[in-house]
From TrEMBL:
Transmembrane segments: none annotated. It comes from Acrocarpospora macrocephala. Pfam families: ABC_tran. Keywords: ATP-binding, Glycosyltransferase, Nucleotide-binding, Transferase, Transport. The lineage of its organism: Bacteria, Bacillati, Actinomycetota, Actinomycetes, Streptosporangiales. This is Mannosyltransferase.
Amino acid sequence: MGDISPLDAGTEVPVVEFKDVTVRYPGKGAIRPAVVDVNLTVPKGRFVCVVGPSGCGKSTLLHVCSGLLKVSGGEFRYLGKEWRKLHPGIGYVTQRETLLPWKTVLGNIALPLKITGMPRTERHERAADMAASVGLGDWLNHYPRELSGGMRQRVQLGRTLVTDPTLLLMDEPFGALDAVLRVRMQEFLKSRIEGTDLTTIFVTHDLSEALTLGDEVVAMAGAPGSIDQIDKLEDLPRGVSPVELRQSPAYAVHEARLWKTIAGNLSEDGVALSNPEVEHEGDHAMTAAAHGRRGTS
């Protein structure tokens, strides 16, 4: 099981905090949980990558962080609070392209500002500044069909960042890109976020991508999923290219350790192996919590 990431005494409230969390998707009858016994703390400004096989609950954690999904057991806090609605200050980027084809680069980036009611002149100025910051200042009046895959992903990132989110959630955003473009987008994302207070949780199947981008890597395993290992990457060289990073001895150590965790819980077809022992632990925890609520009512 994963341990809670340690926080130094006197630090501010973490942005995200999972405590013994179990999540079951709504439905009829007995449904196996998606994740069980998840413990994780993400401080402000941290870049956390989550890896693991298909079916281990990586995307479920993002749904909980956004407020789209509530926990079934345990406790989840965002900015130190339990929310009953969608969480404020969230930016969400998915692998699926969600640009509006009838809007220009400027219009797509300005869209969330328009939704909040920002005046047209102000939102266009802000969107233009954001477009320039993601390298698209000369493409404001172009439509998505006129852009490359990497450029469209930068528009999506710009549209997300223009609202100044507190927490950036990314669910395999570069999964559809070719290998060269993927590395370029990794470098771009790292340069765009590094040195800011933006907290990021990045889900990926690609272990090398996680080691390139993250301050720490969370390895999930099993179905239902649980955190099996957390690797902190302070010993990896920073400010170097992905190629140079992957040549460092520390990189090889982290890669081997994390891959051993993931591969040991992976079926031949790449899906997370069933984890009945963990599932039963989650059932016991939820039963105990239910009895506790009845006892205090």
